[in-house]
Amino acid sequence: MSNRFPRSPYDREGGLVYFPRLVEKIRLHEEGKLPEDYRANLGAGFDLRCCDFLNVDYDALAEQVRAGKSDSQLLEWCCENGRRPSEDEIFMWNEYLRKCGWNDHYSERLRTRLEGLGMAERTDIRTMFDLIEVDEGREPGGVSAADR
Questions:
Q1: Within 71-106, where are the H helices?
Q2: What pLDDT is attached to residue 145?
């Protein structure tokens, strides 16, 4: 089976950035299509932050994904079994996650990753989301599939 990259971290479900990427990574892993270097971080990093934000266990969410639920059904499951964030909380989540790497505790990691990829001179990659986009062959800046 050929590997596929998950959806953009900028894509949204129920207004939340990253959630569609999280569940697609689980699906791709189950199908044997998730790139090998992504597998070690399943349920960690932004995956874990997203689950923590929704107050759900990653493994329990993965079980729901394996049951074949859609993205919207999965988010509703999270809201029913964890917490339902308010519009203000969703706004804060989105702004926090979209800006990780821009003058914060992720900045050094971003610089190190850019150097490792031979892209240290790129000034258009300012956040971890931008790095993910470029690393997966998309343009930085957060144009989601829903906005295209």
A1: 71-81, 87-99
A2: 43
Give the amino acid at 102. Answer: W
**Rounded CA separation 121/115 (Å):** 8
Q: Does 25 reside within a domain? A: yes
Question: What are the pLDDT digits (tens) for 46-73?
Answer: 999 999 999 999 999 999 999 999 999 9
Number of domains in the chain: 1
**Hey, what are 134's tokens?**
């470029």
Is 6 part of any domain? Answer: no
Cα–Cα distance measured from residue 133 to residue 13, given in angstroms and rounded to the nearest whole number = 18
Q: What is the mean pLDDT of residues 101-107?
A: 82
Classify residue 141: in a domain, yes or no.
Answer: yes
Instruction: Enter the pTM of the model.
Output: 0.87
Which range marks the domain in which residue 127 is found?
12-147
- Report the DSSP beta bridge partners of residue 17: 12
Q: Cα–Cα distance between 92 and 113 in angstroms, integer? A: 26
Place of tokens 């050094």: 108
Domain assignment present for residue 121? The answer is yes
